[in-house]
Structure formats: C-alpha cells, structure tokens
Amino acid sequence: RMAPEDIVAAAEDLLGKVPESGAPGFIVERIERLRLMIAMLSDIEWRLPHQEASRVLNALAYFAEPEDLIPDHIPGLGFLDDAIMIELVVRELKHEIEAYQDFCDYRDRLRAEGDGSSASRQGWLDTRRKELQARMRRRRGAGRLLLR
Predict the structure, then answer these.
(1) pTM for the full predicted model
(2) How far apart are CA 111 and CA 99, in angstroms?
C-alpha cells in the first residue's frame, strides 16, 4: 500500500529505534542487514533487478509495520519476527547480496584509481567476465603443461 520510498524511509526510521529496544544481539545483528539491503535497493549504479527489488521491498514493508506478528513495542521480543523475515530474505538473496558487495568493492577500487565515474553494473559485469576468462585461459595453459 505504501510507495517504495515511503517503505524505505519507514524502515530506516525504525532501524534507528532498534538499538534502544533492548532486543538481544542476535536480533540486532540480523536487523542491521537491512542497511545493506536498503543500500542495494537505493544504489542507482547497481540497479537491482525488479524481482529482487520487490522481495527486498516486501521485507522492508514487513519490518516497517509496527503491528506485525509480534508487535515491535514488546520489550526484547518485538523484533524477533522481523529478524526471522530478514534472515529468510538474506538467505534467498545471498548471491545478489554477495554480488552487490563485490560491486561496491569494484566501485571503491575505481574511485581510488580516480575513475569512479565509470562504475556501473554493466562495467562490473564486463570486468568480472574478463577476469573469469583470463583465469580459464591460465588453467587451460597449466593443464597443457601437466600433460606434457
């Protein structure tokens, strides 16, 4: 029912309240993963595919709803259902999250080299493809040496 930007804003607002809630560390740790998902969703250079963006938005919407399965105002347990939901989404999007973290490293390297303006998902994919092809050529060359 909410616009995506309103969902993100509500989730970010609630993220600020979690440390004060008295929630156990394992819950806080999982909820902190929302920051990465929000960044992945909001990153213009990354452009998360629609299907994955929808899953992240659904998790954020669930988290932003204060009257969910376990109401957030219940001390110590209020965020337990949110943490479970986040854990499920993180597991489902594991590869996409790892790819985004790799992309962020790639972008940081480009910026350190003074070329951060060319950071894009396509540029990252092209670079990864070239790296994989070079690795395959090296392995093939090493295999030929072993056969001789």
Answers:
(1) 0.73
(2) 18
